[in-house]
């Protein structure tokens, strides 16, 4: 094979792995949740406690392998590792495409969602390129001599590790979810413009003379009479539409169980929301800056909402605050909206004006300081 073609394949494969690893390293929790989705489909939830560690290591390895391939360093080793990895990825995307149980495979995180079929085809194409690298691995030589490759790869491991540690504490650098800063939650809960709803046919089931008979609303039997005994009625999707809002499962309930979603997101003016899936990071709420935040919110008449999946603990911590409203929300929704536990949302009407992780209380306080006093 011509050297120039092999070099192009090295760069294509390497850049794809680097891009894939960095995109997922921007949000390792997203990859860990995707792993849990696969484990749930396979009924092995016992591995859920290890998904973040696996995601962390996988992201580092993808970037490391991509750089190693571009450098042509130790190709006998990395060609084997890449071949095994792409075979594993192809199995995952093939399973997702065949089973229909996984909507997106998470190959490029939430920033570039691919359908299972598209992901599988991408992996098949990548597999063919990696097979070529594997076949000619002994002919690929690195032009960089020691110790430069070791230094470069060590910096890659350190850089990818630091990136993941940073975003786990301070939120993803690039937020690709529908709850990102600048989005209007009310609009995100509506179907996209120009979308087409599902085409549904109402089907009836009746029993007559011991036989089950099915027909839709437009095809009632000509002899339909009292001898037909009603059994059931159900909706059958004839043609699947695409009228699915970016946010489909966001709902808030007060302490009495009443749905107050629309009431909460349609408030005029500024409001501050604290998303807390649980209160395992209780030390953040005992920080002096957090107490100052509460006082500033009260002084400026800015409503404060604690949105949590652990209502009972929230009531114990915040129940004494008359200006704080505690709302129940599904834990999975909170994990999507707020990657860091807890996370502050500064809202203006239904628009997310700021999104700040709980470890950055100074930034939250600075935002509140710039806000006007509300009536």
Textual characterization of the structure:
This protein is of the alpha/beta class. It has 3 domains: 3-170, no CATH class; 199-239; 261-369, Glutaredoxin, CATH 3.40.30.10. The protein has helices at 3-25, 28-41, 51-71, 75-99, 116-135, 148-170, 185-188, 261-265, 282-285, 288-299, 311-318, 331-337, 361-369, and strands at 199-208, 211-216, 229-239, 270-276, 304-308, 324-328, 343-348, 351-357. Strands 6-5-4-7-8 form a 5-stranded mixed sheet, with helices on both faces. It has a 3-stranded antiparallel sheet with strand order 2-1-3, with no helix packed on it. The chain starts with a helix and ends in a 6-residue tail after the last helix.
User: Compute the gyration radius: what is it?
Assistant: 27 Å
Structural class: alpha/beta
User: Number of helical segments?
Assistant: 13
Beta-strand share of residues: 15-25%
Task: Write down how many β-strands occur, each being a DSSP E stretch of 2 or more residues.
Answer: 8
Helix content: 40-55%
Order of helices and strands: HHHHHHHEEEHEHHEHEHEEH
- How far the N terminus sits from the C terminus, by CA atoms, comes to 74 Å
* Overall spatial form: flat
Structural domain tally: 3
Low-confidence regions: none
Average pLDDT, all residues:
89
Strand arrangement within the widest β-sheet reads 6-5-4-7-8
How many strands, what sense, and barrel or not for the largest sheet? 5 strands, mixed
């Amino acid at each position: 094979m011509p050297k120039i073609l092999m070099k192009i394949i090295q760069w294509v494969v390497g850049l794809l792995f680097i891009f894939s690893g960095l995109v997922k390293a921007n949000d390792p929790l997203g990859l860990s949740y995707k792993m849990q989705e696969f484990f749930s489909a396979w009924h092995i939830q016992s591995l859920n406690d290890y998904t973040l560690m696996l995601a962390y290591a996988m992201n580092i390895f993808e970037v490391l392998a991509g750089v190693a391939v571009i450098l042509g360093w130790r190709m006998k080793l990395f060609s084997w590792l890449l071949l095994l990895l792409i075979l594993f990825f192809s199995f995952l995307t093939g399973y997702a495409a065949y089973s229909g149980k996984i909507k997106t495979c998470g190959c490029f995180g939430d920033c570039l969602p691919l359908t299972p079929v598209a992901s599988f085809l991408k992996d098949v194409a990548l597999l063919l390129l990696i097979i070529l690298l594997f076949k000619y691995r002994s002919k690929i030589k690195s032009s960089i001599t020691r110790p430069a490759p070791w230094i470069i790869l060590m910096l890659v491991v350190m850089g990818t590790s630091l990136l993941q540690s940073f975003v786990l504490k301070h939120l993803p650098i690039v937020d690709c979810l529908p709850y990102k800063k600048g989005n209007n939650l009310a609009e995100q809960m509506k179907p996209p413009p120009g979308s087409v709803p599902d085409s549904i046919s109402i089907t009836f089931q009746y029993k007559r003379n011991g036989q089950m008979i099915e027909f839709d609303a437009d095809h009632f039997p000509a002899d339909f009479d009292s001898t037909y005994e009603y059994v059931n009625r159900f909706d059958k999707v004839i043609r699947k539409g695409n009228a699915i809002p970016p946010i489909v499962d966001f709902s808030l309930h007060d302490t009495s169980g009443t749905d107050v979603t629309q009431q909460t997101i349609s408030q005029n003016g500024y409001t501050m929301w604290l998303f807390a899936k649980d209160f395992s990071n209780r030390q953040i709420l005992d920080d002096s800056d957090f107490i100052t935040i509460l006082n500033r919110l009260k002084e400026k008449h800015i409503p404060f909402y604690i949105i949590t999946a652990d209502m009972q603990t929230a009531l114990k911590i915040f129940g004494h605050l008359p200006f704080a409203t505690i709302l129940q929300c599904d834990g999975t929704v909170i994990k999507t909206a707020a990657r860091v536990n807890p996370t502050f949302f500064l809202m203006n009407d239904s628009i997310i004006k700021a999104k700040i992780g709980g470890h950055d209380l100074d930034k939250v306080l600075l935002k509140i300081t710039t806000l006007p006093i509300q009536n």
